[in-house]
Amino acid sequence: MYKRILLKLSGESLAGGQGHGIDPERLHAYAAQIKQIADLGVQIGIVIGGGNIFRGLSGSKKGFDRVKGDQMGLLATVINSLALSSALEAVGQKVRVLTSVRMEPIGDFYSKAKALRLLSKGNVVILAGGTGLPYFTTDTASALRAIEIEADIMFKGTRVDGIYTADPEKDPSATKFSEITYDEILARGLKIMDLTAITLCRENNMPIYVFDMDHEGNLLKVIKDEQIGTLVKP
Predict the structure, then answer these.
(1) Tens digit of pLDDT for each residue in 197-230?
(2) pLDDT for position 16
(3) How far apart are CA 183 and CA 202, in angstroms?
(4) H or E element: which one contains 97?
(5) Is 184 exposed, middle or buried (0-12, 13-18, 19+ CB in 10 A)?
């Protein structure tokens, strides 16, 4: 079993069937799954996207200044992080939010030492605000934080049950990989994460496991090494 993981959650998935905002049922389901593995002694860092509220890149295409748009996206990830923190507290899980830019008392300012200290004391640590810089996605932030906190693996929880040869929601003939390397992802042009995140993980030997987080019980399955998704190997 893994000792320490980085869990990347999609902001869009938090919207559930609503399509935007935060679905309380989805939020509670995520919190229950996370507490389930925390109770096994797994140390958990979490990075959440903000696409259910605002996405900087799409905002810039509609006339927003890109830097300001990314700052709005940063704040969206903090909103999602606070929501998940509240849901985890409601199920009895110790949790702390650390932010990439200073915004006390909303969250403590992130440092690796602080994150590791909190993880060692049984806290789930939610790493909010992306990298704190524009032009970087939360995929890149999750790759960076996974490497910084010396996670054993990064779990990428999505709406899809792994990596396919094409988008399975658009191409019914797409086939799923059980394992794939970073080099093959790059060669095939598969867009599971942005290139910066892939490069960070490849150069720092950080494996990624892509799975469907929206199916309750799946997080426990991947922690127990059940093969339900796709493993990306350095």
Answers:
(1) 999 999 999 999 999 999 999 999 999 999 999 9
(2) 85
(3) 8
(4) strand 95-99
(5) middle
Cα 42 to Cα 133: distance, rounded to the nearest angstrom = 29
Parallel, antiparallel, or unpaired: how do β-strands 176-177 and 163-164 relate? Answer: antiparallel
State the amino acid at position 159 in one-letter form.
R
Q: Which DSSP state fits 18?
A: G
**What is d(CA 55, CA 61) in angstroms, rounded to the nearest whole number?**
10
d(CA 147, CA 27): 26
CA dist 125 and 200 (Å) reads 21
| Residue pointed to by tokens 């799954």 | 33
96 touches 123 (CB < 8 A):
yes
Could you tell me which of 131, 14, 132 has the C-alpha nearest to residue 81? 14
CB 193 within 8 A of CB 146: no
Q: Are residues 207 and 234 in contact, defined by beta-carbon separation less than 8 angstroms? A: yes
pTM over 0.90: yes
Report residue 208 as tokens. 């990624």
Picking from 86, 62, 149, the residue whose alpha carbon sits closest to that of residue 72 is 62
Determine the residue type at 105. P
Q: Is there a contact between 174 and 230 (Cβ–Cβ < 8 Å)?
A: no
**Any residues with CB less than 8 A from the CB of 206 and at least 6 apart, and which?**
143, 146, 147, 151, 153, 154, 200, 234
